Amino acid sequence: MLSKMMNVGSVLIVAPHADDETLGCGGTICRLIDMGFEVHWLVVTSMQEPDFNEAQILKRESEIKEVSKLYNFKSTILLDYKAATLNSYAQRILINDFYKILNTLKPATLFVPFRDDAHSDHRIVFDSIIAASKSFRHPYIKNILAYETLSETEFNLKPGAMKFSPNFFVDITKYLEKKILTLQKFESEISIFPFPRSSRSVKSLADLRGVQINCEAAEAFMLLKGVL
Q1: Domain 2-226, CATH number (from 3.30.300.70, 3.40.50.620, 1.10.10.10, 3.40.50.10320)
Q2: pTM above 0.90, yes or no
Q3: Among 33, 111, 20, which Cα is nearest to 73's?
Q4: What is the DSSP code (8-state) at residue 161?
Q5: Residue 135: exposure state from Cβ atoms within 10 A (0-12, 13-18, ≥19)
Q6: Of the residues 113, 152, 176, 190, which has the maximum number of CB atoms within 10 A of its CB?
């Protein structure tokens, strides 16, 4: 079913920040690559001075290289927008960058952040990638799925905001351990429970999503577009 849903073609994981891809769909990434799909990783923002020092920036660059190798991504694209400041850029610039990437990669499936996450970068990335991926310009895009990001998706308390209501699940029982090990590569982003980006939190969410589909561990998504 998963292979039919994803169609024949490559997959693009759109991450506002490095680590979002692992939190939201790390197990699914592993499973898709094991199934033979070409999976590409797009990281939209980066650590930059003066908010981060040179050591932190170099450490993050090293982490991204290591994580890319662990997953065995077909390619890793770094756009290098300043993290937490996407609202200061003209959205057309971001849309244009996404448009060029889609034209180059021609992915069949997009994994994108949930629009109503607490972090404004997630909302802006979502709006921009959706604007850039219209079907009359990119007919090869058959599926778009939104992932949940621990520390962001569950913390949107805005009245009237859409809640994450998954309707598509992936059994990641075989891949949960690798997902957690990969997340631990982002040393500055994780901490001990009850911090949301902790190994225990990630496992707890995978357990909950697994219960929903009668398996040991799962990841959940909102299927926004699906064409068979």
Answers
A1: 3.40.50.10320
A2: yes
A3: 33
A4: P
A5: exposed
A6: 113
Token couple for 74: 């077909």
- 192-221 pLDDT, tens digit each: 999 999 999 999 999 999 999 999 999 999
Parallel, antiparallel, or unpaired: how do β-strands 143-147 and 109-113 relate? parallel
**What would the pLDDT profile of 14-37 be if each residue is shown by its tens digit?**
999 999 999 999 999 999 999 999
* Whole-angstrom distance, CA of residue 152 vs CA of residue 114: 9
CA angle 38, 11, 120 (to 5 degrees): 140
- Sequence-ordered alpha helix ranges (H) in the chain: 2-6, 20-34, 54-71, 91-105, 120-132, 176-183, 199-213
Q: Residue 160 has which token pair?
A: 């009237």
Strands 168-171 and 143-147: unpaired
3-state secondary structure at position 82: strand
The Cα diameter of the chain in Å comes to 47
* The pair of three-digit structure tokens given for residue 181, joined into one six-digit string: 């090990």
* Alpha carbon separation from 27 to 70, 71, 167 (Å, rounded): 12, 10, 17
C-alpha span between 5 and 143 (Å, rounded): 8
What the block records as the tokens of 220 is: 């959940």
